[in-house]
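User: For my dataset I need records formatted as: sequence, then structure tokens, nothing else. Please produce one.
Assistant:
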Amino acid sequence: MPPAFSPRRSCLYMPGTNTRALDKARSLPCDVVIMDLEDAVSADKKKEARDTVCAALTSGGYGYRELWVRINALNTAWGETDLRRVAKHSPHAIIVPKVDDADDIMRANALLCAADQSSAIALWAMIESPAAILNLARIAAASTDSRLAGLIVGGNDLAKDLRLDVTPDRQALLHALSQTVTAGRAYALDVLDGVFNDIDDAAGLIDECTQGRQLGFDGKTLIHPKQIESANRLFTPSPQAINQAQAIIDAFSDPENCHLGVIKVGGQMTERLHLEQAERLIAYYEALQQR
């Protein structure tokens, strides 16, 4: 089981058919390993990929890394079998692609509850269609009656279906990115940014990670190990932010301030909402330090 507070700065997709890649992931510094049965696997390799992923889950050895599996969509020939088989091998989460509305979440949840009596496996939803954007509030609200723990942007599919010309600044996608974060936060869900396609464009990845963090995402989904370092670095709080957060916590802990709603910390007016933010930041930092 992952800790109650799990940093998910870098979430690396690994093809389910690639045994060597799944083995290598045991030594990579990513926070989450996503074993992929969907986009990275051709139709004739679906069963092979499922068997390979189940074997990797059983073998273990991934240390602190969370293990997630992206199954095929439930309306395909493989989706339901993927979910049932994978659930028997206890990943930390199952990612459901092509989620268009809350009914998709509830269907996945019913299948998962039947397959996993421990209630230990979470669900994550891929937000990658115009219908999903229109139904974001209902999809996120389904978390109150299901194991839905987070949302993941599927930017490539979304751009295709919206017929967008995506530029490096992702201007055409900003409305969808922001709406996904807003819906997630409204229901206390974590939210992950989509992948960056150009493996060799290090500067572009840095810009997109920076933008994603500014938009409020918790981390970045990745397609290559060389992208891990940038995602980890850019989604890790700076030393200055950690020091400021600790100063806020210390100031409100002072008996003279414990009853006050607003105090001055480092020359800035600081409210109790900033204390809540500071406590979350320190919890995030401590979770990272445990690794």
